[in-house]
TrEMBL record:
Residues 1-33 are annotated as: Disordered. This is Small ribosomal subunit biogenesis GTPase RsgA. Monomer. Associates with 30S ribosomal subunit, binds 16S rRNA. It comes from Nocardioides massiliensis. Residues 1-15 have a biased composition (Basic and acidic residues). The keyword Cytoplasm applies.
Length: 331
């Protein structure tokens, strides 16, 4: 059996004897701890990148307890940080996160998962066909981005299979920037948007995210799958989030496993309308207390629909999301 503590464990040295001194809450200062960034997590092992490019494998130090450490976290490492084969560092501290992207499996799921931290742009990758685009999932992801204080970017893939125009008609009125990418091309529009930023890529399985990542970061070797002809779904070929530096040090991307749902249990139903700015402008004339839902009487959204100032698809997307959130909050 391996010992529970070793010489590097911050709690193990100068451990007071119980009878002579009361237990202190003071933690070691970690002055010598080495700053690093978590690039991927696999079964309790954290791959961390030091500022000088050294890749170090680490585990959590005991004082962190059950605190989650996620991809994107800026951490302080102690113990062996050489990165030499077979060595293991310890994550002693996690720096305060500037942003966190969370999602729950469903809107009423109390278990929230932090997917990634410290990113400033959320790239919603959606295929124009194979699998069919799912505007409601896209809308949810955009809401999640705004809620997390990140800038959304819509990235539409597989333009050789369907005309982007159909989907762009929905999203053009929003202020959400978009790019269209095709596998095997330069990806220059996307690169421009990613330059100098830290971006997380999310999207339903099979939309071509791994293909994009491989195009952006040569050598990333993200495995690509084939879309199942029957279900239209990818095979979930990517299993864990991973953070990669763009060539030339021009920013970072985080590739996440394909997702099927994007629960928003943490977003207040009342605030939802703020995340649909193209619809929000039509609610000025609504009476106080108007919830803008399906059954709201004399709602500005219905007037806008009647006047042709918005589309049924957009209003429906908002109202479905609202109904789902209200149901969850009423539980
Ligand atoms: N026609 C066409 N096919 C593409 C394009 N980009 C990717 N594909 C194909 O779409 C399939 C799925 O691509 P992946 O990159 O594996 O998709 P993913 O989103 O990473 O899927 P997961 O790994 O399951 O999350 C592959 O067969 C790709 O070759 C494109 O621009 N056009």
């Amino acid at each position: 059996m391996s010992p529970r503590f070793d010489a590097h464990d911050p709690e193990s040295y100068e451990r007071p004897r119980r009878r002579t001194r009361p237990r202190t809450k003071d933690r070691p200062s970690y002055d010598d701890a080495v700053p690093a960034r978590v690039t991927t997590v696999d079964r309790g092992r954290y791959t961390c990148l030091l500022d000088d490019g050294t890749v170090v494998t680490a585990m959590k130090a005991r004082p962190l307890g059950r605190k989650a450490v996620v991809v994107g976290d800026r951490v302080r490492l102690v113990a062996d940080t050489t990165g030499a084969e077979g060595t293991l560092a310890r994550i002693a501290l996690v720096d305060e996160r500037t942003t966190v992207l969370r999602r729950s499996a469903d809107d009423d799921d109390p278990v929230e998962r932090v997917i990634v931290s410290n990113v400033d742009q959320l790239v919603v990758v959606a295929a124009l066909a194979d699998p069919e685009p799912r505007p409601r999932l896209i809308d949810r992801a955009i809401v999640a981005a705004y809620d997390a204080g990140m800038d959304p970017l819509l990235c539409l893939t597989k333009p050789d299979l369907a005309d982007p125009e159909t989907l762009l008609e929905i999203y053009r009125p929003l202020d959400v920037p978009w790019v269209v990418t095709r596998a095997g091309t330069e990806l220059s529009d996307l690169r421009e948007r990613l330059a100098g930023r830290t971006s997380v890529l999310i999207g339903h399985s099979g939309v071509g995210k791994s293909t994009l990542v491989n195009g952006l970061v040569p050598g990333a070797a993200r495995s690509t799958g084939h879309v199942n002809a029957v279900t239209g779904r990818g095979r979930h070929t990517s299993t864990s989030a991973i953070m990669l530096e763009l060539p030339g040090g021009d920013g970072w991307i985080v590739d996440t496993p394909g997702i099927r749902s994007f629960g928003l249990a943490h977003v207040d139903a009342e605030r939802l309308i703020d995340f649909f700015p193209d619809l929000e402008v039509h609610t000025d004339a609504c009476s106080r207390g108007c919830g803008h839902g399906y059954d709201a009487p004399e709602c500005g959204l219905d007037e806008a629909l009647a006047a042709g100032d918005t589309t049924p698809g957009r209003v429906d997307s908002f109202r479905r999301l609202l109904a789902s959130r209200e149901r969850a909050e009423g539980d």
